Amino acid sequence: MEAALRLFKLSFLLSLILGNSGVIGSRTLPDLASGPGGKFPSPCNRIECPTYELVSSENGYEIRRYNTSVWISTEPIKDTSLVKASRNGFSQLFYYIHGKNDKSQTIEMTAPVITQVSPSDGPSSESNFTLSYYVPRKYQADPPPAKNVHVQRWDTRYVAVKQFDGYVSDDNAAKEAAELEESLKGTDWGKAIAKSRETGGVGFSSAYTVAQYNAPYELFFRVNEIWMSFQIDK
Ligand SMILES: *[C@@H]1O[C@H](CO)[C@@H](O)[C@H](O)[C@H]1NC(C)=O
Ligand SMILES: *[C@@H]1O[C@H](CO)[C@@H](O)[C@H](O)[C@H]1NC(C)=O
Predict the structure, then answer these.
(1) Which of 42, 49, 115, 193 has the highest CB neighbour number within 10 Å of its CB?
(2) Minimum CA distance residue for ligand 1 atom 14
(3) Closest-approaching ligand to the CA atom of 51
(4) Domain boundaries, the chain
(5) Cα(3) to centroid of ligand 1, in Å?
C-alpha cells in the first residue's frame, strides 16, 4: 500500500513536470490498439519474450500459438491475494536471476512474469499461486538449478489472451479473467480450454494465468494479460 502510494505520488509529480502533453501520462495506448497484427506486448520490443504467432483476433481477446518455452517456477504459494502472492514469488525469482542459484549465474530479465492461479476446490478462500520467469533461449537447455524453484517445460500450445493496462490488482485480475471466460463461452476455444484443464498437464490445470510484462517501477504503458492455455487434438 505504501509502495503504491509512493508510486502514485511519483507519477503525479512526473505528470506535473512533463505537463499534460499526453505523451507519457496518457492512458491511451496506441501500440496496444487492436490491428491486423493483434496486440503485440510492447515490452517485448526491448527484452526477450516467448515467441508466438497470432492465430485469431476476436472481439476482446486473441488466440496465440506459442512456441515451446521454458520457465523457472516457484513452489505453489497459498494466499487469498494474487497481489501478495505475486510480490512474494516475484522476489524469489528476482534473487534467482540476480545470482541466487547453484551456478551463481546472473541471467537477463525477460517478460512476462506469469502467475498461474489455481483456486481451492474446497471451501477455503485461499488459492495456489505459482510464479514463473521465462528463461532466455540461450539458457533453456540447462537453466541453473536453485533451491525452492523448479523448471516447467512447455510444449507448443495455444493461449487465449485478454490484455489490460495499469497495475494488476486482485479485483481487476479476477474481473478480466471472468470477462475472458465469458467471451469464450460456447466457442470452440472455450471447449478446448475446458478440456485441457481437465486433462491437466504442465501449465494447463490452472483456472487462468496472469502475465505481467513490466517491472514494478515502470509507471506507464504497463501491459498485462490474462492467459488461458489449451491444446488442440491432432
Ligand atoms: C521455436 O523455438 C525453437 C527453439 O528455441 C527455435 O529454433 C525456433 O526458431 C522458434 N520458432 C519460432 C517461430 O519462433
Ligand atoms: C496447492 O498446492 C499444494 C502443494 O503443492 C497441493 O498439495 C494442492 O493440491 C494444491 N491445490 C490446488 C487446488 O491446486
Answers:
(1) 115
(2) 51
(3) 1
(4) 2-230
(5) 39
User: Can you list the positions of beta strands (E) in 90-173?
Assistant: 113-119, 127-134, 149-154, 157-165
- All 3 cell numbers of residue 121? 476446490
Burial classification of residue 186, based on how many CB atoms lie within 10 Å of its CB (0-12 exposed, 13-18 middle, 19 or more buried)? exposed
For 208-222, the DSSP string reads EEEEE-S-TT--SS-
Q: Is 137 in the pocket of ligand 1 (CB under 6 A)?
A: yes
Cell of 105: 549465474
Which ligand sits closest to the CA of 85?
2
Please state the pTM of the whole predicted model.
Answer: 0.83
pLDDT value at position 137? 97
Kindly identify the ligand whose nearest atom is closest to the C-alpha of 156: 1
Task: Give the pLDDT band (50/70/90) at residue 168.
Answer: very high
44 alpha carbon to ligand 1 midpoint, in Å? 16
**What class has domain 2-230?**
alpha beta
Spatial CA neighbour of 228 closest among 161, 130, 152, 156: 161
Distances, alpha carbon 100 to alpha carbons 103, 114, 138, 153, 168, in Å: 8, 20, 19, 21, 27
